[in-house]
Amino acid sequence: MVRVTLLAFLLPLITAYSFPKVPSKIDARNHAASTAADMSRQISLSRRQVFVTTTVATMAAACFPQASLATGNEKVEFASERYVPRIKAGAKAYKKELYSAVGSGDMRALAVVVAEPRKKSKEDKAKADGGFAERAASAGVFSDARVLTAMDLYAAAFSDRAESEKTRAMKKEVATLRSIVAEYRTMSSSGGKKGGSRAKELYKEGGDAFNRYVYAANLGLNIKFEKLDYL
After folding, report:
1. What CA–CA distance (Å, rounded) separates 10 from 117?
2. Closest of 212, 215, 209, 213 to residue 179, by C-alpha
3. Distance CA 19, CA 228 (A)
4. Which residues contact 66 (CB under 8 A, 6 or more apart)?
5. Which end of the chain is more exposed for a tag (fewer CB within 10 A), N or C?
6. Pair 105, 203 in one domain
């Protein structure tokens, strides 16, 4: 009798209590499939992010190879290898061909020394390189195109986003040399007339400007880079 009474008391409690549901095999498979799908979506998203990032970086490097690689010392190294030989050749021309033309007062020789490349002709269109090599060769040994442009570009290598004091100092001397070369071209266009003392004054001014450029370029230069020589 006691057992029946106790069972009658416990039965409502047992019935009301909700035991945790044991997942069936089908539920377990569905849960595993859902988890795998979520992981797959996350992995796919990560792969897409990596792909987009890599693609953008690759495109930037392809479009702007110098901007992505030539920074700091690498930028100076690139400019040094490309422009220093032209600047050094210009220094030799200043001391030889230009000195000879000015010293002798030979305006025709002076015109050749400071001549700019000839203009592109109709015949150039038929050539493989468009006549570029021949036009470049026609530039004078101390011309703007052959020497001063190289000096400008080398100076720019010492700046990043903002122009540095070093670059400004170097470009200032290039501007002086450019005005001197321009005056030499005007002077020599007169034909066989002598330039006189003015030509010699310009030669001295140009030599001083070139040496100041060399000083600014060599100042603080990394020892692994080639230095410029004074006149």
Report:
1. 111
2. 209
3. 90
4. 75, 78
5. N
6. yes
- Determine the residue type at 5: T
Q: How many domains does the chain have?
A: 2
CB 160 within 8 A of CB 71: yes
Query: Using CA of residue 96, residue 99, residue 104, residue 108, what is the dihedral sign?
Result: positive
Residue 228 lies in a domain: no
For 31, the domain range is 19-63
CA dihedral in degrees (84, 86, 88, 89; nearest 10)? 160
Give pLDDT tens digits for 135-194: 777 799 999 999 999 999 999 999 998 999 999 999 999 999 999 999 999 999 876 556
Same domain (yes/no): 208, 132: yes
Please write the tens of the pLDDT for every residue from 96-143: 999 999 999 999 999 999 999 877 666 766 666 666 677 777 799 999
Looking at the structure, tell me whether residues 92 and 184 fall in a common domain.
yes
pLDDT tier at 72, thresholds 50, 70, 90: low
Percent of the chain surpassing pLDDT 90 = 54
Structure tokens at 172: 């200032």
Cα(first)–Cα(last) distance of the chain, in Å?
A: 127
Confidence at 17, pLDDT banded by 50, 70, 90: very low
Q: In terms of Cα–Cα distance, which of 137, 124, 164, 155 is closest to 218? A: 155
